[in-house]
Amino acid sequence: MDAERNRQNTLDAIAAFNAGDLDRYLASYAPDAVIHGLPEHLEPNLSGHREFLTSMREALPDVTSTVEDIVASGDLVATRHTYRGTHEGVLHGARPTGRVLEWRAMTFRRFDDAGLATERWIVTDDLALLRQLGHLGTPSGAPATAR
């Protein structure tokens, strides 16, 4: 496996995401890729991923992902990143606030020999996001976002 190629493919996919180019972003995946960590009502495939990302873009039109760390080994690439976007549409049932939301995530992508992601796992700090949306109170003395 070409770990450096997989690392670069991950960074290229994130650049496409940040540019709002959903087709180019999804082209980084194999057609039969499995996407773990989508909301339960979505299929864990590219169609479900497209639906999720489309709704995210409708709620946060300027959303971007900043890579804080990236580690590649063999066919696996891990990233730790921060999402940021202006809340301009309904998100998790919350009406637009106009505020910039920020939350963290960790992602693992597994690649095939052709350099396409065949499997992805994502774990997000949903608690920080829900607090910013007003669905949960903040603990006494804690900031509204995790740092």
Q: Quick recap of the structure?
A:
The protein contains four helices and five strands. The protein is an alpha+beta fold and 147 residues long. A five-stranded mixed sheet has the order 1-5-4-3-2.
Keywords:
single chain; 147 residues; alpha+beta; Nuclear Transport Factor 2, Chain: A; five-stranded mixed β-sheet; 4 helices; globular
Low-confidence stretches: none
CATH topology: Nuclear Transport Factor 2, Chain: A
Q: What's the helix count?
A: 4
Main sheet characteristics: 5 strands, mixed
How are the SSEs placed, and which strands pair?
Blueprint: H1 3-18, H2 22-26, E1 29-36, H3 46-59, E2 64-73, E3 76-86, E4 100-111, E5 117-124, H4 126-132
Parallel strand pairs: 1-5
Antiparallel strand pairs: 2-3, 3-4, 4-5
